[in-house]
Write a structure and sequence with these properties.
By secondary structure, this protein is of the alpha/beta class. Helix content is 44%, strand content 13%. Strands 3-2-1-4-5-6-7-8 form an eight-stranded mixed beta sheet, with helices on both faces.
Length: 278
């Protein structure tokens, strides 16, 4: 896939694997929409991409706030007419403490940042992605745990690891659900575990010794975003470069419908249309 003249939005692109993906896409000729929370890191990435001959623009937003997610979507819709590739990469790890945290909206923090923010942003930007017949890549994890719909916000028996794994499985349920909804429209939606314990601030922040490399993870993400052989292939989960099976709940249509309805309610999008329910 020739990415020249394409517009790519990468969330969480100021550090780690997101930054490497942004650098490589910028060098290949894509216009990169940089997202992050830290203005200095975002500016340094913008400068690096432009110094390499690429184009970039910065959009700041804290994904712990749905208000900021909506403001990000509004800004992108104001400035752009199409999004060719959306890479939902922003996230936080399990942390070193089992102290339950909440987002600014009162939702369990890892569910909010790792899943709800990307769900909301994708839904709001969908018209721009449909215009481009683009690709959506959800950066998930091999660490997954079934969602407890009786206690999605984990008010009982909380652990950071459980919260992280549930949020990552939620991303995959959303991937499969959206792929089915958009089938036949030219948009592809896929998810992946990019690499195991990459050498990133997120992994080190969880107190884990890195195993995989950022370059390995970036390559896997870029393949889903740009590889010609994946054109038209949608609703898939990959472990690195290998097609894989997610946790069984991801293939449960009732669970996906429950998560979709709950997510729309939590982010204030209203009920699904008949097409979105089919």
């Amino acid at each position: 896939m020739d990415v020249r003249e394409t517009t790519v939005l990468i969330t969480g692109s100021t550090d780690g694997v997101g930054r490497r993906v942004a650098e490589r896409l910028g060098a290949a000729g894509a216009e990169v929409l940089i997202h992050g929370r830290d203005a200095a890191r975002a500016a340094s990435l913008e400068t690096a991409i432009e110094a390499a001959g690429g184009k970039a623009a910065v959009y700041l937003a804290d994904f712990a706030s749905l208000l900021e997610v909506r403001a990000l979507a509004d800004a992108v819709r104001r400035d752009r007419r199409r999004i060719d590739i959306l890479i939902n990469n922003a996230g936080i790890g399990a942390g070193r403490s089992d102290m339950r945290e909440t987002s600014r909206d009162g939702h369990e923090l890892r569910f909010a940042v790792n899943y709800l923010a990307g769900f909301c942003l994708t839904r709001l930007l969908l018209p721009l992605i449909l215009e481009a017949k683009g690709r959506i890549v959800n950066v998930s994890s091999i660490g997954q745990q079934a969602i407890d719909f009786a206690d999605v916000m984990l008010t009982r028996g909380y652990s950071g690891r459980r919260a992280y794994r549930q949020s990552k499985l939620a991303q995959i349920l959303f991937t499969f659900d959206l792929a089915e909804e958009l089938s036949g429209g030219g948009v592809t939606v896929n998810a992946l575990h990019p690499a195991t314990y990459m050498d990133t601030a997120l992994v080190r922040g969880d107190g884990i010794a890195p195993v995989g490399s950022v370059e390995e993870g970036a390559g896997a993400i870029l393949r889903l975003a740009t590889a010609p052989e994946l054109a038209g292939r949608t609703g898939l989960y990959f472990d690195g470069l290998r097609l894989a099976r997610a946790e069984p709940q991801a293939y449960d249509a009732d669970a996906r419908a429950r998560l979709a309805a709950l997510s729309r309610e939590l982010v204030g999008l209203g009920p699904a249309t008949p097409r979105q329910r089919s």
